[in-house]
Amino acid sequence: MGNPEIHQHRHTVGQAERMRLKPHLPACLWFTGLSGSGKSTLANAVEQCLNRDYRAHTYLLDGDAIRMGLNSDLGFSLPDRAENIRRLGEVARLFMDAGLIVLTAFISPLREDRARARQIVNTGRFIEIHVDCPLEVCEQRDPKGLYRKARRGDLAEFTGISSPYEPPLGAELTLHTDREAPEDCTRQVIQYLIKEGILTDAAS
Ligand SMILES: Nc1ncnc2c1ncn2[C@@H]1O[C@H](COP(=O)(O)OP(=O)(O)O)[C@@H](O)[C@H]1O
Ligand SMILES: [Mg+2]
């Protein structure tokens, strides 16, 4: 697309200059999974570990908070969900351009929408993390009481009940939160970042 009337100024300080200020590479950790699967819990735990043990400059974009602010004009229809994720991709791209490790915790139910976010970010450091947990377990946890509401018919277009969730086919990481403790899941993410050279092992 692109408006031919818009000419971008070339700035002197770019991503490379910002990256030199940080002990890590910019990256996007894209958590996807059903409501109650553990995206917010794990994104928060990973961010805490990155901040405390690796002095990493991070920012967590959490679905609920973003939907109250930047995306407060959007609902839960599939077109609105697509726009929600498109904007998230753009915001993640900006944060990476600023040199940060950005974590996103959104259901992001459709493969196509996640693929578009990956395209927008457009680096090899888009890390799709499938927070994999059976619907029955998420429904038992029901941390926000949303499944109960959806089953009663008081909540339309709820992922897993009345709106689809397409599990990733090629996620960089899959975390099984029904049988792996949060600490183990967090460790797997950190190990992955070290393996990919995004972080340097703090223990070494
Ligand atoms: N291994 C695990 N990883 C993450 N959360 C877990 C795990 N085991 C149990 N839980 C619980 O599951 C719930 C997940 O809720 P939340 O993180 O808000 O999910 P989401 O952000 O995906 O909707 C929390 O109550 C959390 O304590
Ligand atoms: Mg959440």
Report on the architecture of this protein.
With 204 residues, this protein is an alpha/beta fold. It has a single domain, classed as P-loop containing nucleotide triphosphate hydrolases (Rossmann fold, 3-Layer(aba) Sandwich). The protein has 8 helices and 5 strands. It has helices at 15-19, 39-54, 63-68, 78-97, 111-121, 135-141, 146-152, 182-195; strands at 27-32, 58-62, 101-105, 126-132, 173-176. A 5-stranded parallel beta sheet has the order 2-3-1-4-5, sandwiched between helices. The radius of gyration is 18 Å and the shape is globular. The model has no long low-confidence stretch (mean pLDDT 95). The protein binds adenosine-5'-diphosphate and magnesium ion (MG). Residues 39-40, 62-64, 105 line the site of magnesium ion (MG).
Q: CATH superfamily, please? A: P-loop containing nucleotide triphosphate hydrolases
Query: What's the overall average pLDDT, rounded?
Result: 95
Small ligands present: adenosine-5'-diphosphate, magnesium ion
The total tally of domains equals 1
Question: What is the topology?
Answer:
Elements: H1 15-19, E1 27-32, H2 39-54, E2 58-62, H3 63-68, H4 78-97, E3 101-105, H5 111-121, E4 126-132, H6 135-141, H7 146-152, E5 173-176, H8 182-195
Parallel strand pairs: 1-3, 1-4, 2-3, 4-5
Helix pairs in contact: 2-8, 4-5
Notable traits:
204 residues, alpha/beta, Rossmann fold, 5-stranded parallel β-sheet, 5 strands, 13% strand, binds adenosine-5'-diphosphate, binds magnesium ion
Quick synopsis:
The protein is of the alpha/beta class and 204 residues long. Helix content is 42%, strand content 13%. The longest helix has 20 residues, at 78-97.
